[in-house]
Write a sequence for this structure.
């Protein structure tokens, strides 16, 4: 027993350290001036990743979706400060769910503008998720510094208000939770989904952004346009049930 106890203590320390690390924000380079930030949260005993984007421009940094929860959002801001050494100017939130915009006050307390669609702002108010600072002009290209982007509303899918964001210079499409990752086995959370229109929304994205080379889903690994076709496949399989 004397030998076993130190071993158990060592295993406990390693396990605890690994679990703590798993809850830490991760950042990976995706393209020129673009990084994916991945945060984590636990639901019913299972840990899920959640993706967003960091974009560096000559006019500062902007985010596509915040990290999941206040603590990891603070980690995200610290990463930008330490690694990019630029101020974060704004954050575009892609729909009114907690993984996208819960706790946006962390950003607003640091004078970071939070932008959303009018529909998302209305839904967020009803769910006490906070109040965005400005309303996005949808489906029209605009620029932050030299970086061009378009926030596109394809119609209801995962939620009635889900947006995607396209960066034409890098050919990066942030599909958010409208798009499932290429290895997903189901549609995930469909509590607020419009399952009848979701396929139409994916087809609108395919039609609008055929040049996209990288597609980042809201959860899971990014890939190429196969993520869009796989999402359609999952929707077709779900409709057969």
């Amino acid at each position: 027993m004397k030998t076993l106890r130190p071993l158990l203590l060592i295993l406990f320390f390693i396990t605890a350290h690994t679990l703590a690390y798993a809850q830490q924000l991760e950042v990976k380079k995706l393209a020129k001036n673009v990084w994916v930030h991945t945060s984590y949260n636990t639901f019913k005993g299972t840990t899920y990743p959640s993706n967003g984007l960091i974009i560096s421009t000559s006019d500062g940094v902007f985010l596509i979706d915040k990290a999941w929860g206040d603590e990891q959002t603070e980690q995200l801001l610290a990463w930008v400060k330490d690694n990019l050494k630029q101020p974060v100017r704004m954050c575009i939130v892609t729909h009114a769910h907690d993984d996208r915009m819960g706790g946006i006050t962390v950003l607003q307390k640091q004078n970071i503008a939070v932008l959303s669609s009018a529909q998302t702002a209305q839904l967020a108010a009803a769910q006490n998720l906070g109040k965005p600072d400005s309303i996005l002009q949808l489906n029209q290209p605009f620029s932050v510094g030299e970086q061009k982007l378009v926030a596109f509303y394809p119609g209801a899918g995962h939620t009635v208000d889900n947006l995607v964001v396209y960066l034409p210079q890098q050919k990066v499409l942030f599909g958010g939770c409208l798009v499932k990752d290429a290895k997903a086995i189901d549609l995930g959370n469909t509590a607020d989904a419009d399952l009848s229109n979701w396929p139409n929304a994916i087809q609108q994205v395919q039609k609008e952004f055929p040049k996209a080379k990288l597609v980042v889903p809201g959860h899971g690994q990014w890939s190429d346009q196969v993520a869009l076709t796989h999402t359609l496949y999952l929707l077709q399989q779900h409709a057969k049930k």
Q: What stands out?
A: The chain has a mean pLDDT of 90.
